Structures are given as structure tokens and as C-alpha cells.
Amino acid sequence: MPHKLTGAGASSADDIISREEALQDLPVDEVLEEGSLSGPPLKSRRDARELVIKIIYSAELSGDSLRDAGRDLLPESPDKYTRFAADLCERIRNGADEIDRLIVKHSEKWDLNRIAILDKLILRMAIAEILFFPDIPPKVTINEAIEIAKKYSTVNSGRFVNGILDAVFNDLRDKLNKQSGSPTKSRISKKRKG
């Protein structure tokens, strides 16, 4: 059963857990052999997203770079899902300032440091996907982030993540439509009244 952080910031002394304890509750691909942290090839984008959460969570707790954490946790096979996970980690790293600005902008009454760590990391991952992966519909990204939040974070995380990502999505709608080119074939359609 995943570790549930309590409270909005989940930062009291009772909530501080070791890196090993935190990582043991995240999804494990297989029983690891000594010296090897990577698991088998990934089977879906969901698997890749969950692995990205492991990687950025590991980096956040250890202070290691995302690149180092990814080197330890990414499967060695160069399949499309492993490449997706590696690319997503790289986009999170390169876009960190812009991503965090969007989180702060749309989490009105919350200081970035008070957001539960897994919620913040899930938001970073989803916003990077919305910004830098035009082939993935933003609504798919948002739904995936909500499901991952429900699975690994607090009881209210799904709603919190949904609210922030919906606000980010609406804020970025025009920018992303311009990037896609034609307004008739825009990647994000405006809500229809009806």
C-alpha cells in the first residue's frame, strides 16, 4: 500500500521518512538484483510516467540530479516507453523554472514548499508533458496525472492535481493552439457552449 503523506505540506517531523522508505512504496518493476536498479522494459506510457515519478522523487529526496537518478532507475533497453520516460525527465529538468512558475501561479493560496511533495512532482511531470509533448492530448495527460495522484499521494490529491492542471491547461490553451498551427486543427479545442 502506498505511503500516504498527511496534511497539505506533509512536512512535519512525523511525516519525514527516509529515502528508502519512500521509494519502497512506489511501484517496483521487479525484484532488483544487487547492483542493478533498473527494471524490465516498460509496457505503457502509464508505466513510464510512474517511473518518472520514481526518478524525480528519488532526485528530490536525495539531492541527486534527475540525470543521475534516471541513470540508476531507467531500464537499459531503448524501447519507446523508456525513451519517453527519459525524454520526460529531461524536459522536466530543462523546463523546471517555467513549470514551477505555472504551479505557483495557479495554486493561489499555496506556497510551492507547502504542496505535498508527490503532488508537486506529479504536477511538474504533467505540466512538462502538456508543454513539451504536442502529440499527447492534454486531457489524456491530466487524466493520467489524476490517476497517479490518487494511487500514490493523499486522499485529496486527485482533486488538487485536477484543479491545478485544469487551470494551467486553460491558461496555456491559446499558446498551445498557436504552436499547433492551424486553428481548425488545433491541439486543444475550446469548450463548446451547449
Summary, kept brief:
The protein has helices at residues 19-24, 45-62, 66-73, 80-94, 96-106, 117-132, 138-152, 157-180. It has 194 residues and is mainly α.
Q: What report would you give on this structure?
A:
This protein is an all-alpha fold and 194 residues long. The chain folds into two domains: 15-94, no CATH class; 96-182, N-utilizing Substance Protein B Homolog, Chain A. 58% of the residues lie in helices and 0% in strands. The chain has eight helices and no strands. It has helices at 19-24, 45-62, 66-73, 80-94, 96-106, 117-132, 138-152, 157-180. Helix 7 (138-152) runs antiparallel to helix 8 (157-180). The relative contact order is 0.12.
Low-confidence stretches: 1-16, 27-37, 182-194
Number of domains: 2
Q: In CATH terms, what is the fold-level topology of the largest domain?
A: N-utilizing Substance Protein B Homolog, Chain A
Helix content: 55-70%
The largest sheet, given as strand count, sense and whether it forms a barrel, is: none
Under the CATH scheme, which class of the largest domain? Answer: Mainly Alpha
CATH architecture of the largest domain: Orthogonal Bundle
Mean pLDDT: 78
Topology summary:
Blueprint: H1 19-24, H2 45-62, H3 66-73, H4 80-94, H5 96-106, H6 117-132, H7 138-152, H8 157-180
Annotation keywords:
N-utilizing Substance Protein B Homolog, Chain A; disordered N terminus; mainly alpha; 194 residues; globular; disordered C terminus; 58% helix; single chain; 2 domains
